[in-house]
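User: Please predict the structure of the protein below. I'd like the answer in structure-token form so I can feed it into my own downstream comparison script.

Assistant: Understood. Taking the following sequence of 117 residues as input:
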Amino acid sequence: MGYLYSFLIGGGICVIGQILMDGTKLTAPRVLVVLVTAGVLLQAFNIYEPLVELAETGARVPLPGFGYNLAKGAMEGAQNGLLQAITGGVKAAAGGITAAIGWGYLIALVFNPKSVR
């Protein structure tokens, strides 16, 4: 059942993003910001945590999961002081950020990226 929940929740998040891109005049970068911000807001009200417990990576991998991870790290850091509240989100998301940069660099080396005009 875990795979099914992961697929349904993660797929539903992706469908919402696609609907925002196709049904509105929002550009892809703006939709990305909306989804990350939605993850932060949902975690701030403790709504996203139950989704993560149910769907696990299906809720952690899409963009709202990144926002959730930032907010959760900041909230946990805030219990230890202001500086940890500021740095907690980045510490919590450091692994994902590092993976994204590393894989992006590797793909750029393997393939010849071209700018689109």
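That's the full token string. Residues 2-110 form one domain.
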